């Protein structure tokens, strides 16, 4: 099928957010004087952060609350008396500096930019995502980026997709492909919006019967070049 507009998720699709997250978390902890038991603290942080992001995607919390609440809960659980606001700011300062690319991301973006237009649609914090993209080697191939904080909506909300494609030079649902790693946001959102999707599934997770399947599935980004 011929596609001329490629919408990519950013974190854990093109950029290795898990690696960046760990580096930034450790940096933030060190900056507020915590240097021991960091692996245990990070596991708790991941649990609380994931729960808050799910609430945000469901419209049950705000981005400003999420930024601080994940650290407030972390410190509450571990009985640590450190300012969560200060820690949240230190973490957000560190995150744009810790840019790690997914394998073959640059080559794929370069290839697709020669076949059509490439845009980013990401649930995240505006300033952080802009800085992370600009510090990566992907920026020359990405024509536009839509971030949920600025849009006021998050994937899988169809309104976020509508907001995003307004930035494209040309848009036709039949020739647009969404590429992302999360079934519940990237693939479900694309389905509701009426565009094709490709699930980046490096862990080879099986799709459950209740989940919306994508039109394509890949385990390595390099595979997509042969499919479009």
UniProtKB/TrEMBL annotation:
Coiled-coil features, chain-numbered ranges: none
Pfam families: HAD_2
Signal peptide: none
SUPFAM superfamilies assigned: HAD-like (SSF56784)
GO MF annotation, one: 5'-nucleotidase activity
InterPro entries from the UniProt entry: HAD-like_sf (IPR036412), HAD-SF_hydro_IA (IPR006439), HAD-SF_hydro_IA_YjjG/PynA (IPR011951), HAD_2 (IPR041492), HAD_sf (IPR023214), PGP-like_dom2 (IPR023198), Pyrimidine_5'-ntase_YjjG (IPR052550)
UniProt cross-references to PANTHER family, sorted A to Z: PTHR47478, PYRIMIDINE 5'-NUCLEOTIDASE YJJG
The protein's name in its UniProt record: Noncanonical pyrimidine nucleotidase, YjjG family
UniProt organism field: Bdellovibrio bacteriovorus
Lineage: Bacteria, Pseudomonadati, Bdellovibrionota, Bdellovibrionia, Bdellovibrionales
């Amino acid at each position: 099928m011929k596609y001329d507009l490629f919408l990519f998720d950013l974190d854990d699709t093109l950029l290795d957010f898990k690696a960046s997250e760990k580096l930034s978390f450790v940096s933030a902890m060190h900056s507020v004087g915590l240097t021991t038991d960091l692996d245990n603290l990070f596991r708790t942080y991941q649990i609380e952060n994931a729960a808050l992001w799910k609430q945000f995607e469901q419209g049950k919390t705000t981005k400003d609350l999420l930024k601080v609440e994940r650290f407030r809960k972390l410190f509450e659980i571990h009985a640590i008396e450190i300012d969560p606001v200060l820690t949240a700011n230190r973490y957000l300062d560190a995150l744009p500096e810790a840019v790690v690319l997914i394998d073959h991301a640059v080559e794929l973006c370069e290839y697709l930019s020669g076949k059509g237009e490439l845009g980013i649609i990401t649930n995240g914090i505006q300033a952080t995502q802009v800085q992370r993209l600009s510090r990566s080697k992907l920026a020359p191939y990405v024509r536009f980026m839509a971030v949920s904080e600025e849009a006021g909506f998050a994937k899988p909300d169809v309104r976020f997709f509508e907001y995003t494609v307004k930035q494209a030079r040309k848009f036709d649902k039949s020739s647009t492909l969404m590429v992302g790693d999360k079934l519940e946001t990237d693939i479900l959102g694309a389905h509701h919006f009426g565009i094709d999707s490709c699930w980046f599934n490096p862990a080879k997770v099986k799709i459950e019967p209740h989940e919306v399947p994508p039109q394509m599935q890949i385990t390595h980004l390099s595979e997509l070049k042969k499919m479009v």
